[in-house]
Automatic annotation (TrEMBL):
Its cofactor is FAD. This is Acyl-CoA dehydrogenase family protein. Residues 21-133 form the Acyl-CoA dehydrogenase/oxidase N-terminal domain. One of its GO terms (biological process) is fatty acid beta-oxidation. GO terms for molecular function: acyl-CoA dehydrogenase activity; flavin adenine dinucleotide binding. Keywords: FAD, Flavoprotein, Oxidoreductase. Residues 138-231 form the Acyl-CoA oxidase/dehydrogenase middle domain. InterPro entries: ACX4-like (IPR045008), Acyl-CoA_DH_CS (IPR006089), Acyl-CoA_Oxase/DH_mid-dom (IPR006091), Acyl-CoA_Oxase/DH_mid-dom_sf (IPR046373), AcylCo_DH-like_C (IPR036250), AcylCo_DH/oxidase_C (IPR009075), AcylCoA_DH/ox_N (IPR013786), AcylCoA_DH/ox_N_sf (IPR037069). It comes from Streptomyces chartreusis. Belongs to the acyl-CoA dehydrogenase family. Pfam families: Acyl-CoA_dh_1, Acyl-CoA_dh_M, Acyl-CoA_dh_N.
């Protein structure tokens, strides 16, 4: 008997991939094959060890998947649509959220910060190498004592000294920072109290990045605690078009939707594992997929996936048409990550005791969901952004 699960993506119940053009679909299939062939075999071992497989950098360099959203940089055709880049993030997270996060930090946060915040000379200087992944980027915003309140609470400072800037402070949770070639560091100018962006190169004196140990989520992402002690950065390395936190918010508005797509991918990965396991696992002389309570969990999971995918499809259309506001990405991030939490819990439940063993993979999705739920704006902060938009009243303290 033929079932819906015979398709390449068993979770695409409404054929959302059909919204892509034939050329975009080829890129998505290429992403799927890359993740299956080049990434999946490395995941379990490196996730358990809490180490990023550095050999993936070279594999990404050869994949042709990097730099697609940036016109004029990288060896690719037309600039990728937001729908395609979103589905690529989904496809990566469907296999592993750590690798998707590594890619998103580099290809999204770091590159887009330079694209949006840099002048043309800076774009031409850094983006070609990053689009080939000859160099790797990171994005340092969050601090040890300031996360949700970073706009007002940023403690890292920048002081102008002739043709250079002197940076002092600390950053936390910076993905890729332990091995990145370029780290976009945000600091408050002591002169005008405005937040500015600086590109700090690997090996700059006074800059240290120490890997955060003992994480239980996104274990392959090498998040770092960064210390900046009289780090001198030339004026030419200050992002010339990023002169206030409003510019930072503009970057986050664009990249936050990518996190929602990651959450969708995690849902899909967990659901597909649970569906396959339910059809194979025998109890009481029959597959557990034939039990009503198991089918209820699977159908609720598919409902969360389908509704979230529909929301993100329309969000991408708003982005591609230029009609896109903070509250659009905020609602998607808050809603889809909450649905993700439900799906990974239901998937783990279907596995029973095996669901806590890394060998079955679903435990990794269950754990990784917690980081995605929190970063790029917590559910509470994104809820307040949407709440202000729909009521006209600010509930921020």
């Amino acid at each position: 008997m033929t079932t819906h699960t015979d398709s390449q993506n068993a979770a695409d119940f409404y054929d959302f991939e059909g919204a892509l053009s034939p050329e975009e679909r080829k890129v998505l299939v290429k992403t799927r094959e890359f993740m299956r062939d080049q990434v999946a075999p490395l995941v379990a071992e490196h996730w358990a060890q809490g180490v990023f497989p550095k050999e993936l950098i070279g594999r990404f360099r050869e994949s042709g998947l990097v730099g697609l959203p940036y016109e004029g940089y990288g060896d690719h055709g037309p600039v990728a649509s937001h729908l395609l880049t979103g589905m690529m993030a989904m496809e990566m997270s469907r296999v592993d959220a750590s690798v998707a996060t590594f890619f998103g930090v580099h290809n999204g946060l770091a590159m887009y910060a330079i694209q949006a915040g840099g002048d043309q000379a800076q774009r031409d200087r850094w983006l070609p190498g990053m689009a080939r992944m000859d160099t790797v980027g990171a994005f340092a915003l969050t601090e040890p004592l300031d996360g949700s309140d970073i706009a007002a609470g940023m403690r890292t400072t920048a002081r102008r000294d002739g043709d250079t800037w002197v940076l002092n402070g600390a950053k936390r949770w910076t993905g890729n920072a332990t091995f990145a070639d370029h780290v976009v560091v945000w600091a408050r100018d002591v002169e005008d109290d405005q937040v500015k962006g600086f590109v700090v190169g690997k090996g700059t004196p006074g800059f240290t990045a120490e890997k955060i140990a003992n994480k239980t989520s996104l274990r392959m992402v090498e998040n770092a605690d960064i210390k900046l002690e009289d780090v001198r950065v030339p004026e030419s390395d200050r992002l010339q078009n990023a002169s206030s936190f409003r510019d930072v918010a503009e970057i986050l508005r664009a990249t936050r939707s990518g996190v929602a797509w990651q959450a969708l991918g995690v849902m899909i990965g967990a659901y597909e594992l649970a569906l396959r396991y339910a059809k194979e696992r025998q109890q009481f002389g029959r597959p557990v997929a034939g039990f009503q309570l198991v089918q209820d969990l699977l159908v609720k999971s598919l409902g969360n996936i389908t509704s979230s995918w529909g929301m993100l499809l329309q969000l991408a259309r708003l982005q591609d048409s230029g009609v896109f506001r903070d509250e659009h990405s905020a609602l998607a991030k808050a809603h889809v990550t909450a649905r993700m939490r439900e799906v990974v819990a239901w998937a783990r439940e279907i596995f029973g005791g095996n669901g806590i063993v890394l060998d079955y993979d679903v435990a990794r999705f269950f754990a990784d969901a917690e980081a995605i739920y929190s970063f790029e704006g917590t559910r509470e902060m994104n809820t307040l952004i949407v709440g202000k938009a729909i009521t006209g009243e600010s509930a921020f303290v």
